Amino acid sequence: MDHLPPLRLLTTFEAVARLGAMRDAAAELNVTGPAVTQALKALEDHVGTTLLDRSTRPARLTESGQQLARATRDGLDMIARTIEEIRAGAGEQSLTVSCTLGMATYWLMPRLSDFYARHPEILVNVQAPPTDLPAISAGIDLALRYGTGAWTDGETTKLFDEIVCPVGQPALVERLLAESIGLNNAPLIHVRSPKTHHWAGWPDYFKHRGLGRHSGSGQFFDNYVQAVQAALNGRGLVLGWRSITEAFVAEGALVSWPDGAVDLGTGYHATLSPAGARKSATQLFLTWLEQHSQ
Q: Residue 91 — pLDDT band, cuts 50, 70, 90?
């Protein structure tokens, strides 16, 4: 086995090949961009040939790179599948779910006790990567994703439509309406980071509603958990998504802006990896997700 490169180099290369960009791979692996660049160079030195054509933007796999990408993907998938088979043989049924921090905090975890009540023999591992589009990578059985559902890396099932609507603390919304302050001048809470580019922001919402430009105050956070907490504290309005703020609106901690709901044609989906689709535990979890998405 001395001719094999370190596993770290192969997992980094697999992420770059699958995601198509070093920046996205760095975000998924929670490492820096230079670390990804160094790992790829080390792998090319080990293999003895160029794996990426860096004359294009973004860089593309060479023929040798495509060949190694297929072998790496199959190899890592086989390792993950074998580990799961070993676990199952030891009497433990488990699956690993990947989703955003907001989805895990506000939608999945509050409901997960019901799944355990129905299936106490199954262990659910939840991973929340820094990117807002969880990937089907080695060891992931199911990914919960926001978007249009046009993914080709696994079997995808739509769970529910995702409607966006501004929400805020009841007292704040009441005051803004009483003072005839519209969204253009209301204090807004933004979520902005390189890892949240798949979700619509306030500029997208304003454009969709034809509201022009915002001229009020604003606060910026790098994830929806922080943003929602700021909204609960009355710091401003945040774009509310069903998967994140639905429970707060239902209990009255947040209220929706009147006639503010917008359907962007997107939804939440569950994508099963090829290995996960073969596991009974994953299929049971998908059925449970569908029941809780009605």
A: very low
- Angstrom CA distances, 211 to 163, 173, 214, 240, stand at 18, 18, 8, 18
What is the pLDDT averaged over residues 27-42? 89
Whether the domain at 7-75 and the domain at 86-160+267-291 fall into the same CATH topology = no
Give the span between the Cα atoms of 173 and 169, in whole angstroms.
6
CATH number of 7-75: 1.10.10.10
Beta bridge partners of 250: none
Nearest partner of 139 among 100, 108, 95, judged by Cα: 95
CATH assignment, 161-264:
3.40.190.10
The residues, ordered by sequence, that sit 6+ positions from 153 with a Cβ below 8 Å of its Cβ are 18, 135, 136, 271, 273
The CATH class, in words, for 86-160+267-291 is: alpha beta
In terms of C-beta density within 10 A (0-12 exposed, 13-18 middle, 19 or more buried), how is residue 157 classed?
A: middle
**Which residue, 72, 24, 16, 4, is CA-closest to 196?**
24
**Average predicted confidence (pLDDT) for the chain:** 87
List the chain domain ranges. Answer: 7-75, 86-160+267-291, 161-264
Res 165: pLDDT:
94
What CA–CA distance (Å, rounded) separates 96 from 85? Answer: 14
Of the candidates 253, 264, 256, 210, the one whose C-alpha atom is nearest the C-alpha of residue 237 is 256
The model's pTM is 0.64
The 10 Å Cβ neighbour count of residue 129 is 20
